[in-house]
Write a structure and sequence with these properties.
With 264 residues, the protein is α/β, with parallel strands linked by helices. The protein folds into two domains: 213 residues, Alpha-Beta Complex (Spore Coat Polysaccharide Biosynthesis Protein SpsA, Chain A), CATH 3.90.550.10; 48 residues. The protein has eight helices and ten strands. Strands 1, 2, 3, 4, 5, 6, 7, 8, 9 and 10 form a ten-stranded mixed sheet that branches.
Length: 264
C-alpha cells in the first residue's frame, strides 16, 4: 500500500461528505486507502460514514470505537491503523481542492529522500464569512525546511496539507494525549527524522467554524496551550533547541499580554 489517508472526525455531519468526496476524487497511479477514525459523534457523522463504506468497501476502512476516546487518542489510534508507506492527514471538516494533490506529494517524497514531510498551501476560510479568506502559509514558504524552522516559526503546516513517511514514530509519549494541538507535535516528532518539503500550490481548504477545537478556543487559552506544548517538546528533544523554543514561547506570552491590555 503506497499511501493511507488518515481522516479523523467528530460531529462533522455537515462536512464529512465533502471531505470524503475530496479524498475519493484523488487521481493517482498507486493504491491508497482511507482510514477513518470516528469518535462517537453525537450527530449523524457515523451514519454517513457507514453508508460511504458500504459504497466503497475496498477503499474506506472505519475505526468505530464503542465509546469516545478523545481527539488525540482517536488520532493516534487511526494513525496506527494506517498501512501505507505514506500518510496523508485530513480532518472531517476540511477538504482537498486538487485531484492531483496526493500524487504530487508522493512524487515529491519519492524524489526527496531527505524529507520526512511534505506540505502545500491551503485556503483558510471562516464558515460564517465573517473574515475574508486567506492563504496558509500567508506569504509562501521556502522549498525545504528543518525541525528548527518548524519550532522557531510555529506550525506552518496546515493539517490537511501534510503527507509524511509512515513508521517514523513507534509510539507517542504520554503527554501527547493531553495536548490540544496534536498535529504540530506530530510534525515535530516526524521532523526529527528528515526535512520538510513545500509545494507552492493551493490544494486544500481549511475551515474555521464554531465547532472546531483549537480555532474556536480563546486567544489566551491558545497562547498558554502553545507554551505548554513547547515545554513538552523541549524536554522530549533533550533541550537541543532550547534557545529557539524559549524565544517562540516568549513571543506567544508577549502577544497574550498585549491582547489583554497589560502593555501600554
Amino acid at each position: 500500500m503506497k499511501l493511507s489517508v488518515c481522516l479523523i472526525t467528530y460531529n462533522h455531519g455537515r462536512f464529512i461528505a465533502q471531505a470524503l468526496e475530496s479524498a475519493l476524487a484523488q487521481e493517482t497511479n498507486f493504491e491508497f486507502e482511507i482510514v477513518v477514525g470516528e469518535d462517537c459523534s453525537a450527530d449523524h457523522t457515523r451514519q454517513i460514514l457507514v453508508e460511504y463504506q458500504q459504497r466503497y468497501p475496498g477503499k474506506i476502512r472505519l475505526m468505530l470505537p464503542e465509546k469516545n476516546l478523545g481527539a488525540n487518542r482517536n488520532f493516534a489510534r487511526t494513525l496506527q491503523a494506517c498501512r501505507g508507506q505514506y500518510i496523508a492527514l485530513l480532518e472531517g471538516d476540511d477538504y482537498w481542492t486538487a485531484p492531483t494533490k496526493l500524487q504530487e506529494q508522493v512524487d515529491f517524497l519519492d524524489s526527496h529522500e531527505e524529507c520526512a514531510i511534505c506540505f502545500h498551501a491551503v485556503r483558510v476560510f471562516h464558515e460564517d464569512g465573517s473574515v475574508a479568506p486567506r492563504l496558509s502559509p500567508r506569504f509562501g514558504h521556502k522549498k525545504i525546511s528543518t525541525i528548527e524552522d518548524l519550532l522557531g516559526l510555529g506550525n506552518f503546516i496546515p493539517t490537511c496539507a501534510a503527507v509524511f513517511r509512515n513508521g517514523l514514530i513507534s509510539e507517542f509519549p504520554d503527554w501527547f494525549y493531553t495536548l490540544r494541538i496534536a498535529d504540530f507535535s506530530l510534525h515535530v516528532l516526524n521532523a526529527q527524522y528528515g526535512k520538510i518539503g513545500y509545494i507552492n500550490k493551493v490544494m486544500g481548504a481549511y475551515r474555521i467554524h464554531s465547532g472546531g477545537t483549537f480555532s474556536a478556543a480563546s486567544t489566551s487559552g491558545n497562547a498558554h496551550e502553545v507554551v505548554r506544548t513547547y515545554d513538552y517538546l523541549n524536554s522530549y528533544l533533550d533541550y537541543k533547541y532550547d534557545r529557539t523554543i524559549k524565544a517562540i514561547q516568549s513571543y506567544w506570552l508577549a502577544v497574550d499580554y498585549y491582547r489583554k491590555g497589560k502593555f501600554t
